[in-house]
Amino acid sequence: MSSSALPGAAIPLIAAPMAGGPSTAALVIATGRAGGLGFLAAGYKSPAALAAEIDTVRGAGIPFGVNLFAPNPVPVDPQHYRRYAALMQREADRFGLALPAEPVSDDDDFAAKIDALIADPVPAVSFTFGLPAAGVIDGLRRAGTTVIQTVTSVAEARASAERGVDCLVAQAHTAGGHSATFTPQRMPDPLPIIELVAAVRAAVSLPVIAAGGLSTAAEVADVLRAGAIAAQVGTALLLAEEAGTSAIHQTALRDPSRRDTVLTHAFTGRPARALGNRFTDDYAAAAPLGYPALHFLTGPLRRAAAAAGDAELVHLWAGSGHRQARSGPAAQILAGLTPGAR
């Protein structure tokens, strides 16, 4: 199956949804105009803010998608949380912040966002963190939306196929930002992306999109030869002119001394790949699992540190191919990632 299985895609490239700022309406539009498929990141946005972004992208007349965090909370041990909160509060004191002493929970307005997307459908909706209920998937498909599920293992792929999704994103452990795993407490085997694509394709008959550390046209060509219908790229677009990547994040990506990425749950309580800094060094061992509790605990600290220009306390999400990230218009970056493009 070719990239034509994706709504309106002319080239086999998808702009990954990057919550927290990088995935702007402008980036989605630029990706669509370049022939790819861009995804708005609904995570951490209110339904009203998401609706406004959808309206902006619709006005450009290009196909696009929306990505949602499927509710799959990771419980946190209250005592472990309080110990970690005390450590975080010491860091926060220098900014005059008071962090949550007790765990905070939230489902990111999932039901309201689903209701809005069914009432006013978009071409594609993808999910990460968990597998939504069959009724959610059926409702979106009846509305004419292509439903895409992000998976990190064969077991997740089979469960998604049985639930009735249209397409899968096979995300390797090399991906930047949060792992999409359904089981953050037990990460899947770290298969190379080629092996993961092959294993998922052997297990289910759905079309598969490859994701995770893809940063060159040769790597994109490799996953297409392995049977993927497209490659999803995120870190490669963090320095695009249309991206909303923060200045401190951009500077860190360009810093030649920041060579390594680490998989850590210290920022949000859910495993995510980032450039290493003092926060990942100092708190990796102390942090409990617990999402979204740790996200809400460290969020004010991370925002204050970013405003103060302190990259050592900020989540610097990045995939394993971050050294290949280049500045420029998104269309130029995508052209450089398209196999055979001139």
TrEMBL record:
The keyword Coiled coil does not apply. It catalyses: 3 propionate 3-nitronate + 3 O2 + H2O = 3 3-oxopropanoate + 2 nitrate + nitrite + H2O2 + 3 H(+). Its cofactor is FMN. GO terms for biological process: response to toxic substance. Coiled coil: none annotated. Pfam families: NMO. Keywords: Detoxification, Dioxygenase, Flavoprotein, FMN, Monooxygenase, Oxidoreductase. SUPFAM superfamilies: Inosine monophosphate dehydrogenase (IMPDH). One of its GO terms (molecular function) is dioxygenase activity. InterPro entries: Aldolase_TIM, NMO. PANTHER family: NITRONATE MONOOXYGENASE-RELATED. Belongs to the nitronate monooxygenase family. NMO class I subfamily. This is Propionate 3-nitronate monooxygenase.
